[in-house]
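Students often ask why we bother encoding 3D structure as a string. The short answer is that it lets us treat folding as translation between two languages. Here is a chain of 243 residues written in the first language.
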Amino acid sequence: MRDGVVCARRRSIGNFKIRLMRSTPDGHFTEHTQATEKPRVEVSVNPVRGYVMDVQLRDDGGVTAFEAPVGSMAAHRYAATDSSPLKRVLYPILGGLRKSGWAVSVLVLGPLVARLLAWMASLVPDIDWPEIPWPSVSWPSVDLPSIPWPRLPSWTPPGWLAWLLEHPKVWVPIVAAAFCGVTADRNRRRSERKKAEWAKRHAYARLAADLHALHGSRTEEAQGAAESLRAPRVSQTDAGGTT
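And here it is in the second language, the structure alphabet:
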């Protein structure tokens, strides 16, 4: 809900992104759940245990995380993340590995799928297609001037670097996970600062409202005191006939 208006309604939880611009009538459910426009709400669910891990608001100001309900699995996860510096680094990286699962699947399953397709192609019988006598075109030859490029110094990479370059399946998922983890930790810190600023603004707004109410009550008390002082004079004027 946003300002009392239902923006989205789902039958079940899951990983989805919903834009916060339209209202959902009673009895209707949101079908489009992969919105890219802002502002939007992104919900992340644990793939194993099936509970909501994170709910984020993305707008032009950045990313703001929702407060997890007290006693929920997400609240316990946040508390465990903040309990030690190691977990503050490890948990986002594990989350990054979960989000970069597509990269792991492509790097690992890609060669297997390629071999499977090659094996299936070998089962297809060879077809002797007729040759088409395409006309030959004699293109003119163009002599381009030779450019004396500078000669770069020769460099032999160390063995560990050459091994990593030959085995991208090892380091690409880790780099993608580290990038996702660093991004998640940065967004979390920015979210905490933004919520602190919002809380300060709300505190100032409540203080201003209380001061305004106090000023109004004192004004009413002053007006009531003035009326009470004015009332005896009026009664004396009516009784004695003097002004």
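Translate back mentally: The mean pLDDT is 76. Keep this in mind for the problem set.
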